[in-house]
Design a protein that fits this description.
- This protein has 274 residues and is an alpha+beta fold.
- It is 38% helix and 30% strand.
- Strands 2-1-5-4-3 form a five-stranded antiparallel beta sheet. The protein has a five-stranded antiparallel beta sheet with strand order 7-6-10-9-8, sandwiched between helices.
- A hairpin with a 5-residue loop joins strand 8 and strand 9.
- The longest helix is centred in the middle third of the chain and has 19 residues.
Length: 274
């Protein structure tokens, strides 16, 4: 154990004696092999000359399978002219930073945040390129999902409104503008009582109380208020919104105008009573 401690102290440079060139190389190699990010080195022709375990975990290729090939195999959606342009950008003295869509050996898509810089030898001569990439697939897929959901919400014929548990409006789609008469700019940031008649404020408190317990509300029929003062019959479906840890942080409300149906029901009732 004492010998191992001596070696660790030697490699970490905690002893008075500085690291020898061989020890420095050993330490650097150990660091590169154990970091989680993908580290790839290419020569000036773009051929891969170094491939760490992080790169193998990210892309699925072993050292033997990838060394000697170009990064084009990892990024088939980017043409080689674009890759050459990016490398020229680095040769001109500017580090390249970007987000690329790659493809693993098993054909699965992987998104990476990549930074490419010049690699120089001890004499300061440029000998290749160093690329460090980290996996951002989860974030990119979440962004795609959010955009898809946002498009669905925006194109919905039903009014869809987001609010906090304090009742502050956080989102307001186009259909909500048409139903209630307020633009998104007028509604977002305001309290949801903006569209609730005063005598029904207690109703909102009861709804928030159920949402705090994680209870969904389906097809709740009530009355709401338009910007022009007109009252409208609506059917509400309200679901709690949770954060990544499962805590309820707000609510999503879908409102459908049922004024025409309610009017027909009233006329029917009047007819029957007559």
């Amino acid at each position: 154990m004492a010998l191992q401690d001596e070696q660790m102290m030697r490699l970490s440079g905690t002893k008075n004696a500085p690291l020898s060139p061989q020890e420095q190389v050993q330490l650097q190699a150990t660091i590169l092999e154990n970091i989680t990010e993908s580290v790839v080195v290419t020569d000036l022709t773009g051929r891969i000359t170094y491939w760490n375990t992080g790169a193998q975990a990210l892309f699925g290729y072993t050292w033997e399978e990838i060394v000697g090939k170009t990064p084009a195999i990892l990024y088939p959606d980017r043409d080689e002219h674009q890759l050459a342009h990016d490398l020229q950008h680095v040769l001109d003295g500017q580090d390249y930073v970007g987000e690329w869509k790659g493809r693993r050996k098993d054909a699965r898509t992987v998104w990476v945040a990549i930074k490419t810089t010049l690699l120089r030898n001890s004499a300061g001569e440029v000998i290749g390129f160093l690329g460090v990439a980290s996996d951002i697939t989860v974030r990119k897929e979440a962004e795609v999902t959010r955009r898809r959901l946002a498009a669905i919400v925006e194109s919905s014929n039903d009014a869809i409104v987001g609010k906090t548990l304090d009742g502050i409006i956080t989102s307001w789609n186009t259909a909500a503008e048409g139903l209630f008469g307020y633009s998104a700019g007028e509604a977002i940031g305001k309290h949801i009582t903006l569209v609730i008649p005063a005598e029904r404020y207690q109703e909102e408190e009861e709804i928030i109380g159920k949402l705090r317990q994680g209870i969904r509300i389906q097809h709740y029929e009530t009355v709401r208020l338009r910007k022009d003062g007109r009252r409208i019959d609506v059917s509400l479906s309200i679901s709690p919104i949770k954060d990544e840890t499962g805590n309820i942080i707000g609510a999503s409300k879908i409102a459908r105008d049922i004024s025409e149906r309610k009017e027909q029901e009233r006329r029917k009732d009047e007819f029957i009573s007559m």
